[in-house]
């Protein structure tokens, strides 16, 4: 009689891993660059793409795509409640009030446009954040808004009355001209005015005077986005979420899902999970794609192939993984099962053939 399956082996066979990879297929027009993929070891990634089932959806952007994996969808003319979600994670408690993200950023004039450079490279200190927040709140004391900075890079604006605007996520503005991406809607002009006044305030702040003297980029604006109020969490399929991205962790906490910091490789992940569906956010290509940094993207995608796809393909072959999926925020969704991996007649194709 055939022996019963070992319980630990059975659990391993039920595991599913989904990799969410913004910027998965590289910067725009990468396919047109001669030699863009030369000398890259991508055999495992190309094999995965060649044999996986493929579904194309509308591009979502990172924030909408990630929130969609937790059942959150923005209503027409409004935002996803990102600010309320990440603030809950940052301060350790939820709020029934309306919050906007108001992140400190660096804007740079470039001829006839103003380009967003975000805040990842600003290295804002807690003291700088506290001083700018205090100056902001003093200026806008009578306007029904209150700014707070529980972390140096994530600031929040409490608004007495929910504004009639829609915004664009900071991640989708990086490297872009900000003018067409500013708040829009019935009350847009009032919020443009607030942003202009905040920029003038920051320009004269001693915080930025000190930064200029030290040769540091100035904190010359805030970016408003992700406004909303928390609702009740719905059911999600994830058993675990693995990421260093603040929104992913906030969504996991909101949904009551176990979560952990991003691990270096798939082997580290497999050593820690037993069963269920697990979401891994690999966001190392985000800035490279937005700023057309081909070299950084090349390093990233080679690491995805060797450190993630290769070990997960081996787990599929051994029957220790039920499914491997890769989702991009550009509309590609690939999924592979052990049976699909055995389709030897589907020959490996170059990554270039998968780029639109």
Quick structural overview:
This protein has 356 residues and is α/β, with parallel strands linked by helices.
Notes on the structure:
The chain has two domains: 7-66 and 236-354, Alkaline Phosphatase, subunit A, CATH 3.40.720; 74-228, no CATH class. The chain contains twelve helices and 13 strands. The chain has helices at 7-13, 43-51, 62-68, 82-91, 126-139, 188-204, 206-213, 246-255, 266-270, 286-290, 294-317, 338-341; strands at 16-20, 53-56, 99-105, 107-110, 113-116, 145-148, 156-159, 221-228, 238-242, 258-260, 277-281, 323-327, 332-336. The strands form three sheets. It has a seven-stranded mixed beta sheet with strand order 2-13-12-1-11-9-10, with helices on both faces. The longest helix is centred in the C-terminal third of the chain and has 24 residues, at 294-317. The model has no long low-confidence stretch (mean pLDDT 90).
